[in-house]
Write a structure and sequence with these properties.
alpha/beta; 20% strand; 7-stranded mixed beta sheet; 16 helices; 3 domains; 483 residues; 19 strands; Rossmann fold; 6-stranded parallel beta sheet; Diaminopimelate Epimerase, Chain A, domain 1; inorganic pyrophosphatase (n-terminal core)
């Protein structure tokens, strides 16, 4: 233990075996005015403990009588360096139906398992504790170093900083950009958020509107402003990532296919969301996180992890716990339950009508669409149909076939399925539970796209799109249940 460690409010303790570890624990408990009884077989050590005004007795912790001696103690810490003695102490306590909370010291994974099976409530291995502490210290030190680097790059901005999300930004991308903008402002730098594409999904539009986040179309940027610092945030999966950026900052939880040489980069594929990464920087800069930023980041983490049901790690949970008290939960509820637009309803109706089911997999053609984000909502709604574990909904817009897929089948990674099906003829990206693809409309036919033959193209490509997707899902054509 060390100064600052929270000590249990339980009334009294026993420490069996007072080597160096036990001695430190005993001193820490005594400093917090806890009633501590120490038992050790080394008479010289016991005498030294008594000289420190500690309550110590001489006895071998292997002896059955020791269990009687400590019967009134609520917590027993068995900390001898002799693991066999520790096992005997645990066995004696439990044999006498002792219900004290016991913490026992192990020396390796095998003895840890044995002590656990014998009834110890908590088993500690000092070498593992030291290793864990070292790794946490390393992580903390690395974050401090990275925050200093990021601060230096942002502070070098002479005019304005541009924070650029990925195309058609999702909640994680929007939230991360909002957080980086707040960090820049904390450092005295003006920053604007930009996007390419459009903000199509109703939840995303509600998210931006309710929180009052100002997003700007990069193609409409004010030519009179010099954005001499460029930051790409959650941008790796952007379709326009090859727009000629020369970024100064890159922060993402995906590796990018583009080759950048930024002044600062923090790319962590082991993280579930970029919002989690930015939350750590918010904490490291010791900022007063505002309600807008906290709400955005919490929603970004929740959306990217499907409310902590997908690829969630402890960092996401600790970040969410930090943000929770500062967030506006009424706003979150409004964002997560937006009204459905007439167009989305039309796309959903078309997808329901045209659905084809093979086994537990459903693929549907939504026809011509104006808002491709409606495909994702349709795919999600169709996933609620009885017996359906995977959905794919596609439609035509802007001379392309757009496809959105969802899956709750734990045996399938839908992102990899779409990559296998369409990666060589278009663009595909996604996770184990949701993914999307873009395919040039004439790729299957070689026919030039124009207004006169679009219906023909749709008819020609529909079966090809469906068959490739079903094949990639591993579904036999004979499994069809009709539409």
């Amino acid at each position: 233990m060390s100064a600052g460690v929270t000590i249990s409010s339980m009334a009294n303790y026993a420490i069996l075996g007072c080597g160096s570890v036990g001695h430190v624990v005993a001193e820490e408990l005594s400093e917090h005015d806890k009633d501590v009884l120490i038992i050790d077989k080394d008479e010289g050590r016991v005498e030294a403990l008594r000289d420190q005004d500690l309550n110590a007795q001489t006895a071998d912790i292997r002896d059955v009588e020791v269990a009687d001696t400590i019967a009134d103690r609520e917590v027993v810490l068995i900390l001898s360096s002799d693991v066999e003695a520790n096992k005997a102490a645990v066995e004696n306590i439990r044999a006498q139906n002792g219900d004290q909370f016991t913490v026992a010291r192990a020396s390796d994974p095998v003895s840890a398992d044995e002590l656990d099976e014998m009834g110890a409530d908590v088993v500690i291995n000092p070498s593992s504790v030291i290793a864990d502490f070292a790794l946490r210290s390393l992580e903390s030190g690395e974050l401090e170093y990275k925050a200093r680097q990021l601060g230096d790059v942002i502070s070098d901005t002479k005019d304005h900083m541009a924070v650029i999300t990925h195309d058609n930004p999702d909640p994680d991308s929007i939230a991360s950009a909002t957080a980086l903008q707040a960090i820049a402002e904390h450092l005295g730098v003006d920053a604007d958020i930009f996007y390419l594409g459009d903000i199509g999904h109703q939840e995303n539009r509600a998210f931006v509107n309710l929180l009052g986040i100002e997003l700007n179309d990069w193609h409409e940027a004010d030519p009179g402003i010099d954005y001499d610092t460029i930051a790409l945030v959650d941008h790796a999966k952007a379709a326009e990532s090859a727009t000629g950026w020369d970024p100064d900052v890159v922060i993402d939880h995906y590796e990018s296919d583009a080759e950048y040489n930024p002044g600062f980069a923090d790319i962590r594929p082991n993280m579930s969301s970029t919002s989690t990464i930015l939350t750590k920087y918010i904490q490291e800069f010791d900022m007063n996180v505002g309600e807008e930023v906290a709400t955005a980041l919490l929603y970004g983490i929740r959306a990217e992890t499907l409310d902590f049901k997908r690829d969630t790690n402890p960092a996401d949970l600790t970040a969410a716990a930090y943000l929770y008290p500062f967030a506006n939960h009424e706003t979150l509820e409004q964002v997560e339950s937006p009204s459905m637009s007439p167009e989305t309803l039309d796309v959903l109706a078309e997808a329901i009508t045209n659905r084809e089911v093979q086994g537990s997999h459903l693929v549907s053609n939504a026809g011509f669409i104006r808002n491709r984000e409606a495909l994702a909502q349709a795919a999600q709604h169709l996933l609620n149909l009885e017996g359906i574990t995977t959905t794919g909904v596609f439609g035509l817009a802007d001379d392309k076939i757009y496809l959105a897929a969802r899956s709750k089948d734990i045996r399938m990674n839908i992102g990899k399925v779409l990559q296998e099906a369409y990666g060589e003829i278009g663009e595909a990206a996604g996770h184990s539970t949701q993914a999307s693809a873009e395919i040039p409309l004439g790729i299957f036919t070689g026919i030039e796209t124009n207004d006169d033959n679009r219906d023909t193209l749709l008819q020609l490509t529909e079966e090809a799109v469906k068959s490739k997707l079903f094949d990639a899902m591993g579904v036999e054509s004979g499994d069809s249940n009709g539409s």
